[in-house]
Amino acid sequence: MPSVYIKTYGCQMNERDSEQVMQMLVAKGYRMVEREADADVILLNTCSVRDMAEQKAIGKMGMLRKLRKNRPHLVLGYLGCMAQARGNELLQTSPHADLVVGTQKFHRVAEYVDQLLLRRQEMRMDNERLPIVDVGEETGSQSTIRDHSADGHQATAFVSIMQGCNMHCAFCIVPRTRGSERGRSIEEIVEETQTLVHRGVREVTLLGQIVNLYGRHEFEKKDGKSPFVQLIERLHELEGLERIRFTSPHPIGFRNDLIECFAQLPKLMEHVHLPLQSGSDRILKLMRRGYTADSYLKLVEKLRATRAGIAITTDVIVGFPGETEEDYLATRELCQAASFDNAFIFRYSSRRDTLAAAMEEQISEDTKEARNQDLLRIINANCEAKLAACAGTRMEILCEGASKTNANRLSGRTRTNKIVVFEGSERQIGQIFEVLITRSSSSTLYGDPVVL
């Protein structure tokens, strides 16, 4: 059967979508390969959050065209967010592309690849190519994001619980690329997670654009608990599932019922990724975020009071249109006050068809870069200090497999989502045990297993 190579750009949602496409292709008999040079089909699963991600994908597609010199029947395709946003326009940018599939049609990719390969067999000339573009909406598409390929060697898995977003933040293109909020049923998600546990998965991460607002339009509260809390409680009951995480939430979705979960449910890991975006109330209002710097800090304090040692990480955008030096300094001050465990700092990137793209007072790239580097220094220093403080302590980890930086060592994650690298044996993969932290680097902990 033909071979397929998939390159993924962007977030964990994209990684999960690529995983789903791989699963469906393998089920049809396709063979996944790790090198472009070995593939009959090359698919780029794209991101639209920042312009750089789009340009990388377009540039990559341009480079892939050269492979057709020796393989004229090679199939090339775009999937995902950029495909959804640009649609047919991508065929002007990349006239050699054969396939453009949007975010609600991942489950059709294997079918379209079949069609394109059949056409290749019937082709006599390269200019007879007939591309397929499908970026239409599809009712019930959220229920197609399931059925992993976990095979007993996978300790962790992503579980998509919803698609889309209704928040319409001024800087964000996601509502356009992912559509409106649509949640899967709790029963569907529990069933999928149970299957994963039977295949050896010990930890799941629940995925959604605004994950903690899951089901707010489709499902009712019960006993004062949101659908998201109901879901977490159901998953917590599954025997064999040891760890539960979720990403990415929105600060306005943290009601008391969810905060209390961190006190009552030990399988819910003590780590929250809590996007801030700005520490300036004026900029937060322009961004349409729905909270203030003070309410954000109070939420951080409440989470830390609820679960001792909870780790808080965040996202911050610098250089949003109209951001003054005073606005930036407010962000800087809040980041210092919040003492984040880590943060992703982004320079504002204009996205067409968003409110921010039409705003006046766009910030220069030099100013964005200066603020980005300044804030990174603060965040990195704080992160290094927190990691250094772990030396000499025992921390529970779930061993996930070989370290990404050293194949001769293993790595795992602490309950607070910190990476630990250590010397061990394959039998420890998928196991939960304590390690003694011996030292740290700027981003990683190193240790020795306490019990082998």
Structure description:
With about 450 residues, this protein is α/β, with parallel strands linked by helices. It folds into four domains: about 5-135, Rossmann fold (3-Layer(aba) Sandwich), CATH 3.40.50; about 140-270, 2-Layer Sandwich (Transcription Regulator spoIIAA), CATH 3.30.750; about 305-390, Transcription Regulator spoIIAA, CATH 3.30.750.200; about 395-450, OB fold (Dihydrolipoamide Acetyltransferase, E2P) (Beta Barrel). About 35% of the residues lie in helices and about 20% in strands. The chain has 13 helices and 19 strands. α7 packs parallel to α8. It is globular and about 65 Å long. The relative contact order is 0.08.
Highlighted features:
452 residues, Rossmann fold, globular, Transcription Regulator spoIIAA
Report the total helices: 13
Mean pLDDT: 92
Helix content: 25-40%
Query: Over all CA atoms, what is the radius of gyration?
Result: 23 Å
Termini Cα gap: 43 Å
How would a crystallographer describe the biggest sheet?
6 strands, parallel
Named CATH architecture of the largest domain: 3-Layer(aba) Sandwich
Shape, per Cα inertia axes: globular
Give me the count of strands. Answer: 19
- CATH superfamily caption of the largest domain: Methylthiotransferase, N-terminal domain
Computed structural class: alpha/beta
Q: How many structural units, i.e. domains?
A: 4
CATH class of the largest domain: Alpha Beta
Walk across the major sheet and give the strand order: 2-1-3-4-5-6
CATH domain topology of the largest domain: Rossmann fold
Low-confidence stretches: none
| Strand coverage percent | 15-25%
